Amino acid sequence: MDSKAKKYKRVLEGIVVSDKMDKTIVVKVESKQKHPLYGKTISKNKRYKAHDEKNECHEGDLVRVVECRPLSKDKKFRLTKIIKKAERIEKDSIDSDVESVLKREKHAPEAAVSQVEGE
After folding, report:
1. What confidence tens digit (pLDDT) does each residue in 22-38 have?
2. Cα dist. 27→15, 71, 80, 88 in Å?
């Protein structure tokens, strides 16, 4: 057998939970396994740092990463494919909604509270 034969590389799918670092994403991979004695399904979450060369991933994206040589102390995976992009909500629309609520509370705080309580 060749010494340069490809060895098994893990391929994982998970959700991006952080993209704040440059060219690095944090991917949460959920694995489910059955308890050997009781039979209850247990879900375990593990977070992996992966290399994202083009900074194309954002939080909430479903991605596929593959194991590679160590790129840094914690980074041992590389992004191969974005399976599904997360839906993005424009920040301006959120800000305008929050501002309108704050204005309503500023002018009539009792009415805003009663609207929320449903009285």
Report:
1. 999 999 999 999 999 99
2. 5, 16, 13, 18
